[in-house]
């Protein structure tokens, strides 16, 4: 259940001190093939050992490809590490092109089994900024199964984007909702749901959803409207733990908007941005059909927002970016969500 928060001034500083630091850059970024642009290939997950949610099975033909968008921080040598499996005994060479220019044609040899994954590395001198990397099959067998592309540069510029890099991509709204939402029941409808390549976003307030497992922080005494359940459950079938797990609430489907029709589902990965910080969370609960802007106790406390279900929350602006077709696995694995969220956020910045 959600309720309108009463806002207090003066608690933010104390809460800020408790929030863990979120790394904003890393020297190495792993970009999953299943999230890249795929030409004549399918995403599958039937051979164990892949990372992310699957791998790309290239069509068995010349010319099928997977293309990633990468970001390089500073001009210099960049290594491109392709993780793949080839369960046959014949090599499946692919040309690797950056911005359309062929760099190399590694052989992608047999790995012994479709479940045995290995890497091939290609290096290139690249200018700072975004580039495309395309791996194109050159034989009638197509490419190997490709799991990911790992990009390492000298500066870490390919890592997780900062709050401002993300916000720079959500300055204007391509509205996809039929009408708008309220931030609280007493307000008028002003908040649209907006579309981007690979994501849906909105900018609203943050009310505290303390529903799910009963904890010291979230129970009938701390929260007038406590419900011992969340719309989505953990891998053991239990309601989520609002005090522990950063999760976000989406409006229940209605004629205004139905999140399920836009690649958003329970455990979908969300970047939540507030006060120059980014928190990665999952879709964990559903709320009223006319109200937007709500997240779990832990989401708030990680962002330096008072998480108290009866007195906390923030007027915002809080920006919520939902990555389409993403899924944390399992929903309660916050570290995994952060890793996946950072990769998806980098791709989002590169692709928009
Ligand atoms: C098998 C295997 C696929 C693979 C394909 C191929 O069907 O299960 O994962 O992509 O062979 O030869 O390309």
What does the secondary structure layout of this molecule look like, with pairings?
Layout: H1 12-18, E1 28-32, E2 37-39, E3 41-44, E4 55-58, E5 65-72, E6 76-85, E7 94-98, E8 101-104, E9 118-126, E10 129-137, E11 145-152, H2 163-167, E12 174-175, E13 194-196, E14 199-209, E15 247-251, E16 269-274, E17 277-287, E18 294-296, H3 297-302, E19 314-323, H4 334-351
Parallel strand pairs: 14-18, 15-17
Antiparallel strand pairs: 1-11, 2-5, 3-4, 4-11, 5-10, 6-9, 6-11, 7-8, 7-10, 12-13, 13-14, 14-19, 16-17, 16-19
The protein binds alpha-D-glucopyranuronic acid.
Alpha-D-glucopyranuronic acid binds next to loops.
Instruction: Report the C-alpha radius of gyration, rounded.
Output: 22 Å
Query: Uncertain spans, ≥5 residues at pLDDT below 50?
Result: 1-26
Individual helix count: 4
Order of helices and strands: HEEEEEEEEEEEHEEEEEEEHEH
Give the end-to-end Cα distance, rounded to a whole number of Å. 34 Å
The tally of strands reads: 19
Gross morphology:
elongated
Mean pLDDT: 89
State the oligomer. Answer: single chain
Estimated structural class: mainly beta
Strand content: 25-35%
- Largest sheet: number of strands, sense, barrel closure: 8 strands, mixed
Estimate percent helicity. 10-25%
Bound molecules: alpha-D-glucopyranuronic acid
């Amino acid at each position: 259940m959600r309720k309108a928060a009463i806002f207090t001034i003066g608690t933010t500083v104390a809460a800020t001190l408790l929030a863990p630091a979120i790394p904003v850059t890393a020297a190495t970024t792993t970009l999953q093939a299943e999230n890249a642009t795929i030409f004549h290939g399918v995403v599958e997950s039937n051979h164990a050992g892949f990372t992310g949610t699957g791998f790309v099975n290239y069509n068995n033909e010349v010319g099928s490809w997977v293309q990633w968008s990468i970001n390089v921080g500073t001009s210099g040598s960049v290594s491109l590490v392709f993780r793949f499996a080839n369960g046959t005994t014949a090599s499946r060479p692919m040309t690797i092109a950056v911005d359309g220019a062929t760099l190399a044609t590694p052989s992608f040899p047999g790995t012994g089994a479709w479940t045995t994954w290995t890497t091939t590395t290609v290096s290139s001198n690249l200018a700072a900024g975004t580039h495309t990397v395309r791996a194109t099959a050159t034989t009638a067998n197509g490419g190997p199964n490709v799991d990911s592309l790992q990009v390492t540069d000298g500066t870490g510029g390919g890592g997780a984007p900062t709050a401002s890099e993300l916000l720079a991509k959500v300055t204007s709204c391509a509205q996809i909702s039929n009408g708008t939402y309220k931030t609280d029941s007493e307000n008028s409808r002003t908040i649209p749901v907006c579309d981007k390549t690979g994501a849906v976003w909105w900018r609203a307030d943050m009310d505290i959803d303390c529903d799910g497992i009963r904890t010291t922080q979230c129970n009938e005494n701390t929260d007038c409207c406590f419900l011992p359940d969340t719309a989505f459950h953990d891998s053991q079938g239990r309601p989520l733990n609002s005090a522990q797990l950063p999760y976000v609430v989406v409006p229940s489907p209605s004629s205004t908007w139905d999140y399920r029709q836009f690649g958003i589902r329970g455990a979908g990965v969300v970047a939540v941005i507030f006060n120059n910080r980014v928190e990665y969370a999952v879709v964990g609960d559903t709320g009223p059909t006319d109200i937007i802007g709500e997240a779990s106790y832990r989401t708030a406390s990680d962002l330096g927002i008072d998480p108290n279900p009866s007195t906390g929350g923030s007027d915002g602006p809080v920006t919520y970016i939902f990555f389409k077709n993403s899924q944390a696995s399992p929903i309660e694995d916050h570290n995994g969500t952060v890793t996946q969220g950072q990769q998806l956020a980098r791709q989002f910045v590169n692709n928009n």
